[in-house]
């Protein structure tokens, strides 16, 4: 059975990633890319669906673990009366195929080690042919996939059966035993054995050099850096695309049906991601993400999708994997994501706002990008009055979601700003009229006098956490009474200090908005947005309390999933979640900016933050 979601740590090579549990088992690994089928899928089933365990005999959790400094090299330690052993797990940044290296080191005494390697290709479904051509190598082969395990001296003689490969060996103080598992296409020659020591040195140097580029020196710097390392690890290096999470179908409610594949790149996250990278000093990664975005959305604006594959591919069909029982029996297990075919009006504002933030940070606005942006605005002009599925990708009926209309306003507003910068006046009057009409309609139809808040959709009494973004997006200034009322109304979405996305369904009935049964946890990004809104509306002490509350629910290596269940004290949803970590970074900058403004005589910001929200407009 898989561990708790927060029991897992991440390792990766900037093209794919693996999850390692506190018990020393690698229970999730997709090869060769984030969005490829998993060859370790025990996370969504049992050990028979693929895993690689390596730990002291007895299968007990580790004594402690952590990343080596500011890197993605994981160190796990077991201590007992017999001795102490450490396992170092990492994936070298890609120079060949994907490779997991595991180094077992005896620290004190003698420890008897046990290991089991079970490969199951195609998301745990395909049993490979396994054989050991010699005492130091194990080969697994099935269809297009092949893996090769290199065992170092001291690993004993592996026992190979159809079920998998077993290991048993002792390790004593000062002894070092290495394992390296690589994947390659079955029709190509197997790669040569790696130089484990050189690969470790190279991996440590890469991450230490990258982490040294962080510009932030404010509160919770360690948490900010760990979030940025995680965001870098979720980046597909060849294209610059950032996946929403490393996993698929981890449930938003244990035993429920809210199980989605997040191994793709979402446009809704684009502005948040770009802002966090630019603010932190990672300009190269920010520009690579922007370039991925421009390539992905190129073409007919009517074909814009909410999400794309890591290379910008459009086809990500959703299928159910009925051979997997699901994480703690949470079914169905889904691969691919049908939200790619939805109409989400908000993404047009996200794309234009991302371009605006990039230009504001000094990126040239070339004719091709301007033409793309103008085409997007033309589409918004003709379609903003239509209902959509909204930012939360509901599977109920389309509605006039308030956040979608606000983001359409953002598209017009940022296009106008860019037109002034570029000296392009051709469409200014139309865009001014569009912006004014959108603003008037949202304030009239999206506002509830009864709730004294912006609502989830026109005519609703429900509130939605996306309304917390109204001041940050510049739609209204922070101290507008409507903003203050909306922030107060978020008390109805709170659960023990954490914020849900929207009102939850009760009694197991199907939710009228999202079309699904069952509840979900509190959404961690929304809780960070609440902290942002508190800070912007003059309540910095409360904002810091909310921020620190979320920091406290990170796991022992600093990772956050999508959601948190305050009742059970468990992380929920796919992990690690890029949006959660991006929101952490942006909120830290917001709180640091509030602190700096409080220290200046005139109350103005002491520093200008690249990628931050533009000045509010009425």
Give the radius of gyration: 25 Å
Global outline: globular
Q: Structural class, judged by helices and strands?
A: alpha+beta
Residues in β-strands, percent: 15-25%
Can you offer a commentary on this structure?
By secondary structure, the protein is of the alpha+beta class. The protein is 30% helix and 21% strand. It contains 13 helices and 28 strands. The protein has a 15-stranded antiparallel β-sheet that branches. A hairpin with a 7-residue loop joins strand 3 and strand 4 (38-40). Helix 8 runs antiparallel to helix 9. The radius of gyration is 25 Å and the shape is globular. The N and C termini lie far apart (54 Å). The model is unreliable at 604-618 (pLDDT under 50).
List the helices and strands and how they pair.
Elements: E1 9-12, E2 17-20, E3 25-30, E4 38-40, E5 51-56, E6 64-67, E7 74-79, E8 83-90, E9 99-118, H1 121-124, E10 129-134, E11 137-142, E12 145-151, E13 159-160, E14 165-172, E15 176-185, H2 196-211, H3 221-233, E16 235-236, E17 241-242, E18 265-266, H4 270-280, H5 283-297, E19 307-308, E20 319-320, E21 334-335, H6 346-360, H7 367-383, H8 402-422, H9 428-445, E22 447-448, E23 453-454, H10 481-489, E24 494-495, E25 498-499, E26 522-523, H11 524-536, H12 540-551, E27 563-565, E28 570-572, H13 578-599
Antiparallel strand pairs: 1-2, 2-3, 3-4, 3-5, 5-9, 6-7, 7-8, 8-9, 9-14, 9-15, 10-11, 11-12, 12-15, 13-14, 16-17, 18-19, 20-21, 22-23, 24-25, 26-27, 27-28
């Amino acid at each position: 059975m898989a561990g708790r979601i927060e029991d897992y740590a991440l390792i990766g090579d900037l093209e794919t990633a693996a999850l390692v549990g506190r018990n020393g088992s690698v229970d999730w690994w997709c090869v060769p890319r984030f969005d490829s089928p998993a060859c370790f899928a025990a996370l969504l089933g049992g050990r028979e669906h693929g895993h690689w365990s390596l730990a002291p005999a007895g299968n007990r959790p580790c004594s402690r673990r952590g990343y080596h400094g500011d890197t993605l090299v994981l160190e796990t330690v077991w201590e007992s009366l017999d001795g102490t052993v450490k396992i170092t797990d990492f994936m070298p940044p890609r120079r060949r195929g994907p490779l997991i290296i595991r180094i077992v080191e005896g620290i004190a005494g003698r420890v008897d080690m046990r290991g089991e390697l079970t490969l199951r290709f195609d998301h745990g479904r395909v049993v490979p042919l396994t054989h050991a051509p010699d005492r130091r190598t194990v080969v697994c082969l099935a269809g297009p996939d092949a893996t090769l395990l290199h065992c170092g001296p001291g690993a004993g003689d592996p026992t190979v059966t159809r079920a998998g490969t077993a290991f048993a060996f002792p390790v004593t103080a000062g002894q070092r035993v290495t394992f390296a598992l690589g994947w390659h296409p079955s029709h190509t020659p197997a790669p040569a054995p790696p130089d484990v020591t050189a690969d470790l040195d190279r991996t440590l140097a890469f991450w230490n050099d990258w982490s040294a580029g962080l510009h932030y020196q404010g509160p919770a710097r360690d948490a900010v850096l760990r979030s940025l390392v995680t965001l870098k690890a979720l980046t597909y290096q060849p294209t610059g695309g950032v996946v929403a999470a490393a996993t698929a179908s981890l449930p938003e409610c244990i035993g429920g049906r809210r199980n989605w594949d997040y191994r793709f790149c979402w446009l809704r996250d684009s502005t948040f991601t770009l802002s966090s990278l630019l603010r932190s000093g990672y300009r190269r990664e920010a520009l690579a993400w922007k370039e991925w975005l421009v390539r992905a959305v190129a073409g007919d604006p009517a074909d814009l999708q909410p999400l794309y594959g890591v290379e910008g591919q459009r086809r990500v069909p959703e299928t159910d994997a009925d051979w997997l029982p699901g994480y703690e029996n949470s079914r169905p297990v889904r691969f691919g994501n049908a939200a790619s075919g939805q109409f989400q009006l908000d993404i047009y504002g996200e794309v234009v706002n991302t371009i605006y933030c990039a230009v504001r940070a000094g990126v040239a606005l070339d004719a091709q990008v301007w033409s793309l942006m103008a085409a997007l605005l033309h589409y918004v002009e003709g379609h903003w009055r239509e209902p959509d599925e909204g930012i939360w990708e509901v599977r109920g009926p389309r509605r006039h979601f308030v956040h979608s209309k606000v983001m359409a306003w953002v598209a017009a507003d940022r296009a106008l700003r860019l037109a002034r910068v570029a000296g392009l006046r051709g469409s200014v009057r139309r865009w001014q009229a569009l912006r004014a009409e959108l603003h008037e309609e949202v304030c009239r139809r999206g506002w509830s006098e009864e709730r004294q808040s912006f609502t989830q959709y026109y005519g609703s009494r429900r509130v939605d956490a996306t309304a917390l973004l109204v001041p940050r997006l510049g739609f209204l200034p922070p101290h507008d009474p409507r903003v203050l009322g909306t922030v107060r109304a978020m008390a109805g979405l709170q659960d023990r200090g954490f914020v849900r996305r929207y009102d939850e369904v009760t009694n197991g009935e199907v939710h009228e908005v999202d079309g699904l049964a069952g509840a979900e946890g509190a959404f961690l990004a929304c809780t960070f947005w609440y902290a942002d809104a508190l800070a912007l509306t003059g309540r910095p002490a409360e904002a810091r309390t909310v921020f620190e509350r979320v920091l406290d629910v990170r796991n022992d290596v600093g990772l956050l999933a999508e959601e948190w269940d305050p009742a059970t004290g468990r992380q929920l949803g796919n992990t690690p979640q890029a949006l959660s970590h991006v929101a952490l970074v942006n909120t830290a900058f917001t709180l640091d900016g509030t602190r700096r403004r409080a220290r200046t005589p005139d109350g103005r910001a002491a520093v200008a933050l690249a990628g931050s929200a533009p000045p509010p407009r009425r």
